[in-house]
Design goal:
The protein has 3 helices and 3 strands; from the N terminus they run H-E-E-E-H-H. With 79 residues, it is α+β, with helices and mostly antiparallel strands. Strands 1-2-3 form a 3-stranded antiparallel β-sheet, covered by helices on one side. A hairpin with a 2-residue loop joins strand 1 and strand 2.
Length: 79
Amino acid sequence: MRLVPVSGEELVKILYKKGFIIKRRKGSHVQLEDAEGRRVTVPIHPGRVIGRGLLRKILRDAEISIEEYERLRQGNTVT
């Protein structure tokens, strides 16, 4: 399955759906954490999308599969 790039704001919304909350924000970067202690940092640059390589790294750190990412991106809930 091909990874569809999204903006930083959209990725933060997807991570919210997965249970991540914002822990800190410094400049154009947001650090999120979930209940199990996993942390990810998402760059938020207006008008730019996150490249596939960085997106793959963030999803791997958040332990979200590409299939689950696609379901969350399209708005379907995942249990």
